[in-house]
Amino acid sequence: MDLFFQIAILILSVVIHEVAHGYAAFFLGDRTAEYQGRLTLNPLVHLELFGSIIVPTLTYLAGGFIIGWAKPVPFNPYNLRNQRWGEAIVAAAGPLANIFIALVFGLALRFLGPSGFLPESFVVISQIVVFINIILAIFNLIPIPPLDGSKILFSILPLRMIELRHTIERYSLFLIIVFIFFLWRLVLPIVFWVFSLITGVV
Question: Any transmembrane segments, and where (predicted)?
């Protein structure tokens, strides 16, 4: 039950993450996500079997943490009004949405939790929400395609390095799997530190 509960929170969080991408593109002039019906919080529109169900289950069973993703919200970078930084802004919108969620629930825990004002069930749920959204934000900022961090990085790099982007993109799925199952444990201390910083809970 704990696994299913965490996956449910993960699904809601990745849906908000993807919708944030779509609205960022929309406000910058691209309506691709709107035309494809992706500017909605309906999970069925966003979920995929591998990233939303299989990977979270495997990471939970293998390491006790949960990572996953939804179908990327489509956008056309050529429609964005800001051609220089538009792709980076759209990419950053997803992790920023997760950080915002973590801050809302985390600060509630920090300032209202010690007073006993919050029900114990809400405290437990809030801790899971904060933890998962911190994981999502940090994971998506890793500069491996198609994660958001890669789009932010490639927006900073000079155009002459475009071939490097294409090379990395060809092996992106393999690189992500290697990172999740072999390197993610190196990132987990950062997740715990950010969680403690926001919530005040060690």
Answer: 7-29, 49-69, 89-109, 121-142, 171-195
